[in-house]
Amino acid sequence: MEMMNERIFVINYKSYSTSYGEKGIEIAKIAEKVSKDTGVRIILAVPFTEIRAIASSVEIEVIAQHIDPVAEGAATGHVTAEMVKAAGGKGSLINHSEKRMLLSDIEEAISKLRNVSLYSIACASTPRTAAAVSLLLPDMVAVEPPELIGTGISVSRAKPEVITASLELIEKVGGKGIPVLVGAGVSNKEDSMRSVELGASGILVASAIMNAHDPEKKIAELSYGLLKKT
Amino acid sequence: MEMMNERIFVINYKSYSTSYGEKGIEIAKIAEKVSKDTGVRIILAVPFTEIRAIASSVEIEVIAQHIDPVAEGAATGHVTAEMVKAAGGKGSLINHSEKRMLLSDIEEAISKLRNVSLYSIACASTPRTAAAVSLLLPDMVAVEPPELIGTGISVSRAKPEVITASLELIEKVGGKGIPVLVGAGVSNKEDSMRSVELGASGILVASAIMNAHDPEKKIAELSYGLLKKT
Amino acid sequence: MEMMNERIFVINYKSYSTSYGEKGIEIAKIAEKVSKDTGVRIILAVPFTEIRAIASSVEIEVIAQHIDPVAEGAATGHVTAEMVKAAGGKGSLINHSEKRMLLSDIEEAISKLRNVSLYSIACASTPRTAAAVSLLLPDMVAVEPPELIGTGISVSRAKPEVITASLELIEKVGGKGIPVLVGAGVSNKEDSMRSVELGASGILVASAIMNAHDPEKKIAELSYGLLKKT
Amino acid sequence: MEMMNERIFVINYKSYSTSYGEKGIEIAKIAEKVSKDTGVRIILAVPFTEIRAIASSVEIEVIAQHIDPVAEGAATGHVTAEMVKAAGGKGSLINHSEKRMLLSDIEEAISKLRNVSLYSIACASTPRTAAAVSLLLPDMVAVEPPELIGTGISVSRAKPEVITASLELIEKVGGKGIPVLVGAGVSNKEDSMRSVELGASGILVASAIMNAHDPEKKIAELSYGLLKKT
């Protein structure tokens, strides 16, 4: 699914007021432009209600922020992998710290996504839980210490050892090659550059973009950080 | 929002394989046609991912099957009232038995919907919980004994006393005038007719339509049941 | 179960370090002494692990802080009404804001307690949810705005209208006579006196006692507040 | 904590009517006798309300069936590691399939138990989730395919590959030496014998004992199965 040394940049729209409607599409188009300009693989994790509209507006990948590991049928208010796919989504975040999941449901959700050829980005907040989710066969792992989310204090600055320990432990348990993303507090070029230096494949960013006065400038800045020769 | 003696027919798409994509729109158009033919107010409770597509395809009301009572912002994987509204939804089911909610969250969700001028249909499974949710100021109440959901055995046949007791108790606690819908097992004209006879304003139906060989025939049948002079 | 004009004082042990072992029994004996001295009905809501030890150490009532509305059998890690009773408990708190429950589970838990002749004190945080739980036939209702819990700022001072509105609404929906307790921030004599003046039957207190340097003095103070002629 | 080749037999009392009061102590004493007779390490996972009474009645280990990963203090209705320890418990089951936990809470619960020198037995239902929990540093891992729980059809007969795959994967990710228990449907000597043959250190059993007409005979039978030379 990804090329060697590919740089990955997931924009988590969360449920900011900029995450839906025209603003959501506007950010998507900006991200698409930056992705084309830089070659960075930008993935948009958007609200369920916006998957189809955004996926049909841009060529870069759109994914869900969560799926419920339920079978199709009598599941009112749930989001299935099949629905995400039908709407044009390519995958989903799983177990984000704002939507934590039961261990057994994480495995089931990853499996249900794979069954319909969608990919999963499993989130975790510590090195050991990151390694644990890597065993459940997600396509990528994102590491986000929840105490830094939304702070503007990057994990790559404040707790680089969380990233390096996660990478080491994931590799040790057989996850060599699985792309690892750095989340929580990533807000400037230095942060994204440092993430790659520490060995990550990319970043997972929300507030720095969704609340930005100039989202294009911010997306470009973070993208160029990912590409900086180290 | 509703007229006196208006008949209401909520089609809960749940997450059936017919709930999304072209099939979901097809059922919506059929429902729209039957609604125009019969004057029954048909409301479509559709998957989050389909709200915008279906709402822009038909003139009848489209609602969500659930919302999370969270504020906009850092709420990954959640569905806010604002998102539903932006996608063209007019309201939401709340506390469906397949997506039960904390008591405090029910009040908060109804309030969040109202704040953005969306309506709520609060579900309950017993007379006392139906009366309890009616105190939280929803726009309608739906009563569904969960043991009958999906069985094809209508509550109006098997447990009519659940409906009458719900209506009495809701009225007793000050909810006179709030439309009450009958759910669980509603599957034929007799069922919808009986629901109105018992004093309900309408029905909440899922499997009988979503799994129907001929959805138009089934939607029409249930609609005519609602209109039958008693 | 309670006499007219009886004053009720529930001490919620929560899970403070003083809630278990010798300290937990010590506070229970102090409460028993104050109860005998003052005639106030003091009820101890203690950790599951302490119900039997405390219930066998004092003559005043001991209750659980929660029960799970499950049937006996294959329910690992759950607490049934039967277990609470077997340990000597007389009832349970239900739906405390630190252990919120699904609406349907609140009704079921109250029913399961009653089935084994235990009583329930259903908690709520707003007037409307308080009235809603009163319809589910609990033996008492406790009103606690969660934002004041543990603050030392009493609801009877900061938000007396929450208490009066709760009492009015509960009475309006048919709950006249059900004892209503005031919780959240109750910390001195003035607070407990005010609670009774507002029409409540008593108080639900945690931190003011569990963290007190002199629990006896504090329990006595709050008890005398409940008895003060107004 | 355990010796080489030690055989471990966890009796999960669940919430059967035999799990509390005199019957619970009776089963504990029987288990203690069998443990002394056979040398099998029998551990009793009992209801919260019974930990102290049973732990003070027998010399074999008593553990909780669950703990909540919360700090002491304002946590009504929760069970802390400290409470379990104060009541005489030596550890706890974690993430039983009837009390599933969020991934992040599993790590936190194991950590909280260890902080007060209690041990943890983390449950999982598949080889990959078993390996995942083994990374969170529990003291033992129990593997129980939930579809077999309570059936009397042992996993060691029906799905031996679940056990062998779990053992292999746990070892592969660095968990060599961690005792693995086999659960779900273990009901006779053949089952416990097979569990050891497959490489497990012991068994986790509930209904076969809690519902037995002659618990002593059943506990002895399963214990001797664990000891059988293979």
From TrEMBL, chains A, B, C, D:
InterPro entries: Aldolase_TIM, TIM_sf, Triosephosphate_isomerase, Triosephosphate_isomerase_arc, Triosephosphate_isomerase_AS. The keyword Cytoplasm applies. CDD domains: TIM. It is found in: Cytoplasm. One of its GO terms (biological process) is glycolytic process. Its main location: cytoplasm. Its EC number is 5.3.1.1. Homotetramer; dimer of dimers. This is Triosephosphate isomerase. It comes from Fervidicoccus fontis.
